[in-house]
Amino acid sequence: MSAMTTGPDRPEQDEVLDAEVVEPTAVELSAQPPPVVPAGDYTDAGVPSFDYVRDRIEGRYATSLGAGELPEEAATTNSLDEQMAKREQAGRDKLEEIRRAMRER
């Protein structure tokens, strides 16, 4: 026998459970809302509308423009990061110089 726990809530592995299959009624089926389909995107034949296609193309175009701008912005950001790092290093160097001068006195 396996190391399966048994008890009032857990039947043994070989025990058969008696269950009944309940079919949904017509009222229960009609109570479910129909799937949400954006109005005007597709015809009844499944062909996308011109407006839908245009919106998709414009969205892809905007995405490609944004992707082209990112490397330009990244170069500017990297340059600023390098300038800040140099300024911080210069500040640390100056502070160390002042500390050395204070110890010599």
Overview of the molecule:
This protein has 105 residues and is mostly helical. It has helices at 26-31, 50-104.
- Cα-based radius of gyration, to the nearest Å: 35 Å
DSSP helix fraction:
55-70%
* Overall average residue pLDDT: 78
* Beta-strand content bin: under 5%
Report the strand count.
0
Give the biggest beta sheet. none
Give me the number of helical elements.
2
Unreliable segments (pLDDT under 50, ≥5 consecutive)? Answer: none
Query: How far is the first residue's CA from the last residue's CA?
Result: 85 Å
Q: Could you say which overall geometry the principal axes of the C-alpha atoms support? A: elongated
Please provide the ordered H/E string of secondary-structure elements: HH
SSE class: mainly alpha
Spell out the blueprint of helices and strands.
Blueprint: H1 26-31, H2 50-104
